[in-house]
């Protein structure tokens, strides 16, 4: 990098000093002071605060201990763990500029004051106290809330309390921790639309009912619902298999029932799953124990059956279940397998799931099973409320003599291969719901089928009406043999003859009508679900971008768009789709991606980045995706590790300003990652190539918005994700624009996890010249400040429309970063380098000057002189606010991207269940504005890192 003149650096340092050092002096706002004074008075041990008694100026100087201010307003009170006792003032919410409050682990008592209207409050840590009442309006107007903890407070103990729907307006809420604070009732549905919620901890409350289906789209990483104190949570846990970012799940100590769905294999980031002490039944799916990140699995005290799968991790406990073996990896005996298949078809009724344990059905302890000569000979489960089908696996129990299943609710047909059972004497299926056809058993078998309505109707016409008819058209004789050999009394009358013809005819017509109605209903329904996608093919303005999908999803709770139940039904059709692997992983089939990208056609290449080539793809319904295909030449172990770690990283960092991963694909030698598609492509294209590509130049307003979007995405990556990530390759070609020109940062191929907070990590050099921070280029040590530098360069590009590094330019201006420093120092020079495509008014220039200053600050030579990304957000946000476009009404859906990957995936599978040949889908040219190489991965230069 070209060195700058020493005096320029001094100037920059001076400017930075000015902007950091200018603190507004002033006395504390009287109202704020009054609340603090009241707070002090409410304590029985205020001396612990060490607040000076002679000062009325908490905002100082000097600042009162534990108090933080901005100007004259109190923004933080941090008194955690001080042993304070007493109660809070009722008008606490007059501290209207409060952003962060930490009262946790003290002895506060009494009523929690209302937080109503604390619209700046981001962090509220109130756990570990003795607050006993929470007012109903506590959650009103908490617009900025990101973290709320009320753990371990005896709130409204006598009645319990429920989360008021007001909380739904805290759209940025990420952590909600309400452990052991007397929540009662069912899990609130509305939480399912909180699209930033990554952590939900509700353990040790009094919750009951099921996990709402609406939670399926939540980007949760941590979900704790364990140990509810009353009867506990019930129902199936299937919905968690759709929260694909989960890493830590505690559901133990409840009454969850049903099976563990094999689609749990979709939870590739899952590290801990505790399901012990529930009422789960069925087999443990191998897709669960095979999960790549899983380290701890507790399944004790359920009614799980079948073999115990081998697990590669040590922390696996499974005691007190109904497994057939006590050692992992051993299979069940063939008879047990057949009986388990039988149970599966009737959904493992708890009574049987609890009793059919071990590998020997003949121990006398198996309810309803008798044996002779050590083989199962009798299944005796009459009136057992069995619901479901009869498994053909019964035919594998070769010694069966009597099968007594009368008085249940069995449906479907009698498996044809049961006729091959050689010892069978009795098959009693009377009073069920068996449908035809009935297979023909030898005449030695007594088959009892009375009281099966579907059989009565369809069997009637079998009897030739004027030859012989049954004594009644609802035969009830328990000893009736199968129809073909039926001994039918032939006392006939004319009247019966007529009835026998007419009744089936009427029933037939009614059935026909019913089927037609059903058909119409299904057709309507399907049409309404997919109307939006298909209509987009003809209407580019309304095209199916991520945001419109997100909008659809956001309306789940209203009566329009896709409803939660429809989503659910689409999702469950996946289970039968061929594109789910044996292990049940929710992954997109290579077939689908092959056809979406026209077999990875050259013309669909968007660019090269990370370990592979990125392709544009179009799904069956016209929605677009971006597919990164790992080059098969680099399928080394290291590359495979990177593939998995990229999935893991991307699953952990979910933000509306970061391009998100929608799915992935692993088959044979193929390793594919699927991202959301950004219609307008890379920012670089709009800045540097708009003329060639015939694009509209970006207005300053748009540039500001883009800068803020990027700053927010990077801030999240650095601080707000649960770990600290460093992008290492931020540049305008990695900033992608959506249809509405909102920006997202992409290409996480080089992302590094900073192991200990933000300390520097030594890495091999990677990144792109022109954006590389000087200290990184020299030492290879990175901190988040490396990204801040790159961000500064991107800002310079936004201001000047010039590329970070351009060999064509004169030596002096080759590196934008150094040249910009010299030029921005004078107003005239700055004016001369502003992108001529920006229409320059006084107002614009003022705003540009601020950004130029920020750019310089961010790209300061020394890392410690550069601000945090949060500072950039704070500088940009008010500017954007001022320049807010009139029709900027899309903010409400921007945060909803989390629904989008799943929705898109679902649509992908739907598309896949038709043909996989691309030729049959019409490639729509109305969206022809997408050039062949929009996303600018291609400009990427990465060095020495082998990528
Ligand atoms: C807090 O209250 C508990 C129980 O009332 C008491 O045991 C404890 O000593 C108190 N702690 C302090 C620091 O006052
Ligand atoms: C808690 O109890 C108080 C007093 O009994 C009641 O006014 C308040 O509405 C309850 N809080 C909630 C959130 O229901
Ligand atoms: C949110 O919760 C996670 C998990 O408990 C925790 O690691 C993280 O620090 C929390 N974030 C904040 C800002 O409190
Ligand atoms: C009966 O059919 C089932 C499923 O079609 C099959 O698994 C089973 O092996 C068959 N049993 C016999 C004895 O034919
Ligand atoms: C039988 O099953 C059907 C559907 O599975 C259900 O609607 C019906 O209520 C059940 N009948 C009884 C008696 O359990």
TrEMBL record:
Into which EC class is this enzyme placed?
transferase
Q: Where is this region: Disordered?
A: 465-486, 918-947
Q: Where does ATP bind?
A: 628
The molecular function terms in GO held by this entry are: ATP binding; protein serine/threonine kinase activity
SUPFAM superfamilies per the record?
L domain-like (SSF52058), Protein kinase-like (PK-like) (SSF56112)
Membrane-spanning residues where? 498-523
InterPro entries named among the record's database cross-references: Auxin_Ser/Thr_Kinase (IPR052422), Kinase-like_dom_sf (IPR011009), Leu-rich_rpt (IPR001611), Leu-rich_rpt_typical-subtyp (IPR003591), LRR_dom_sf (IPR032675), LRR_N_plant-typ (IPR013210), Prot_kinase_dom (IPR000719), Protein_kinase_ATP_BS (IPR017441)
According to the record, the signal peptide region is 1-26
Superkingdom to which the source organism belongs? Eukaryota
Recorded catalytic reaction(s): these are: L-threonyl-[protein] + ATP = O-phospho-L-threonyl-[protein] + ADP + H(+); L-seryl-[protein] + ATP = O-phospho-L-seryl-[protein] + ADP + H(+)
The record's Pfam families line, in alphabetical order, gives:
LRR_1 (PF00560), LRR_8 (PF13855), LRRNT_2 (PF08263), PK_Tyr_Ser-Thr (PF07714)
Specify the protein's topology with respect to the membrane: Single-pass membrane protein
EC numbers for this chain: 2.7.11.1
Give all residue intervals belonging to the Protein kinase domain.
600-880
The alphabetized UniProt keywords are: ATP-binding, Disulfide bond, Glycoprotein, Kinase, Leucine-rich repeat, Membrane, Nucleotide-binding, Receptor, Repeat, Serine/threonine-protein kinase, Signal, Transferase, Transmembrane, Transmembrane helix
Location in the cell reads: Cell membrane
What the record says about family reads:
Belongs to the protein kinase superfamily. Ser/Thr protein kinase family.
Q: What is this protein called?
A: non-specific serine/threonine protein kinase
The organism named in the record is Canna indica (Indian-shot)
């Amino acid at each position: 990098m070209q060195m700058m003149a020493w005096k320029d650096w001094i100037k920059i340092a001076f400017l930075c000093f000015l902007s950091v050092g200018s603190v507004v002096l002033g006395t504390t706002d009287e109202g704020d002071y009054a609340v603090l004074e009241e707070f002090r008075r409410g304590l029985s041990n205020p001396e612990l605060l060490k607040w000076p008694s002679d000062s009325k100026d908490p905002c100082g100087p000097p600042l009162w201990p534990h108090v933080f201010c901005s100007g004259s307003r109190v923004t933080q009170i941090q008194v955690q763990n001080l042993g304070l006792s007493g109660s809070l003032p009722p008008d606490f919410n007059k501290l209207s500029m409060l952003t962060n409050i930490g009262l946790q682990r003290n002895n506060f008592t009494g009523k929690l004051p209302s937080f109503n209207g604390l619209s700046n409050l981001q962090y509220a840590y109130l756990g570990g106290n003795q607050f006993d009442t929470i007012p109903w309006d506590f959650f009103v107007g908490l617009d900025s809330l990101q973290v709320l903890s009320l753990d371990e407070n005896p709130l409204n103990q006598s009645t319990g309390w429920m989360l008021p729907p007001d909380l739904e307006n805290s759209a940025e809420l990420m952590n909600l921790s309400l452990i052991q604070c007397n929540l009662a009732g069912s899990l609130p549905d509305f939480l399912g639309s909180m699209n930033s919620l990554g952590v939900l901890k509700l353990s040790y409350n009094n919750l009951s009912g099921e996990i709402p289906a609406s939670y399926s789209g939540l980007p949760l990483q941590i979900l704790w619902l364990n140990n509810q104190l009353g009867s506990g949570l019930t129902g199936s846990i299937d919905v968690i298999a759709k929260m694909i970012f989960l890493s830590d799940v505690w559901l133990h100590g409840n009454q969850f029932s049903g099976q563990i769905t094999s689609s749990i294999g979709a939870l590739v980031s899952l590290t801990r799953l505790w399901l012990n002490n529930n009422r789960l039944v069925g087999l443990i799916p191998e897709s669960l124990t095979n999960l790549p990140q899983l380290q701890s699995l507790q399944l004790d005290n359920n009614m799980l059956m079948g073999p115990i799968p081998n697990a590669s991790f040590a922390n696996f406990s499974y005691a007190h279940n109904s497994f057939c073996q006590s050692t992992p990896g051993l299979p069940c005996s063939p008879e047990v397998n057949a009986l388990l298949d039988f149970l599966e078809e009737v959904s493992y009724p708890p009574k049987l799931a609890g009793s059919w344990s071990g590998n020997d059905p003949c121990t006398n302890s198996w309810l309803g099973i008798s044996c002779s000569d050590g083989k199962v000979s009798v299944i005796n489960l009459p009136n057992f409320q069995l619901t479901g089908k009869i498994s053909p696996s019964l035919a594998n129990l070769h010694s069966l003599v009597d099968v007594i299943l009368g008085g249940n609710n069995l449906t479907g047909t009698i498996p044809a291969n049961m006729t091959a059972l050689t010892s069978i004497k009795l098959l009693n299926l009377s009073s069920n719901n068996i449908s035809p056809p009935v297979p023909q058993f030898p005449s030695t078998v007594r088959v009892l089928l009375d009281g099966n309505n579907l059989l009565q109707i369809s069997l009637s016409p079998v009897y030739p009406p004027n030859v012989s008819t049954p004594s009644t058209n609802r035969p009830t004789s328990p000893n009736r043999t199968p129809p073909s050999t039926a001994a039918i009394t032939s006392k006939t009358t004319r009247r019966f003859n007529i009835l026998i013809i007419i009744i089936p005819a009427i029933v037939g017509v009614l059935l026909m009508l019913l089927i037609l109605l059903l058909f119409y209903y299904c057709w309507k329904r399907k049409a309404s679900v997919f109307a939006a996608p298909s209509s987009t093919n003809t209407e580019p303005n309304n095209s199916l971008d991520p945001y419109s999908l997100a909008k659809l999803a956001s309306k789940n709770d209203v009566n329009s768009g896709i409803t939660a139940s429809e989503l659910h039904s689409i999702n469950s059709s996946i289970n039968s789709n061929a594109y789910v692997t044996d292990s049940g992983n929710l992954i997109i089939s290579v077939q689908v991606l092959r056809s979406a990208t026209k077999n990875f056609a050259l013309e669909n290449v968007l660019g090269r980045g990370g370990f592979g080539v990125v392709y544009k793809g179009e799904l069956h319904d016209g929605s677009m995706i971006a597919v990164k295909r790992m080059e098969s030449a680099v399928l080394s172990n290291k590359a495979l590790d990177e593939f998995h770690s990229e999935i893991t990283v991307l699953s952990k960092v979910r933000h509306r300003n970061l391009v998100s991963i929608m799915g992935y694909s692993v088959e044979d030698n193929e390793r594919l990652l699927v991202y959301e598609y950004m219609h307008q492509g890379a920012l670089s294209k709009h800045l540097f190539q708009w003329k060639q590509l015939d694009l509209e130049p970006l207005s300053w307003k748009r540039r500001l918005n883009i800068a803020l979007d990027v700053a927010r995405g990077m801030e999240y990556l650095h601080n707000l994700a649960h770990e600290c990530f460093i992008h290492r390759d931020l540049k305008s070609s990695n900033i992608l624009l959506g249809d509405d020109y909102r920006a997202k940062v992409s290409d996480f191929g080089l992302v590094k996890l900073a192991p200990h907070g933000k300390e520097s990590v030594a890495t091999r050099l990677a990144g792109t010249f022109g954006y590389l921070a000087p200290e990184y280029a020299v030492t290879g040590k990175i901190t988040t400040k490396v990204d801040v530098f790159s961000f500064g360069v991107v800002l310079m590009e936004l201001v000047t429309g010039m590329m970070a590094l351009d060999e064509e330019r004169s030596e002096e201006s080759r590196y934008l970063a150094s040249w910009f420093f010299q030029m921005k120092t004078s107003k005239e020079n700055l004016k001369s380098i502003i992108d001529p495509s920006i229409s320059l008014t006084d107002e614009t220039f003022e705003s540009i000057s601020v950004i130029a200053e920020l750019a310089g600050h961010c790209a300061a030579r020394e890392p410690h002189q550069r601000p945090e990304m949060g500072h950039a957000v704070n500088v940009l946000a008010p500017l954007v606010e001022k320049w807010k476009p009139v029709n900027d009404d899309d903010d409400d859906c921007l945060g909803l991207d989390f629904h989008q990957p799943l929705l898109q995936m679902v649509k992908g599978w739907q598309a896949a269940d038709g043909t996989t040949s691309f030729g049959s889908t019409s490639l729509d040219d109305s969206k022809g504005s997408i050039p062949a190489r929009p996303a600018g991965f291609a400009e990427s230069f990465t060095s020495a890192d082998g990528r």
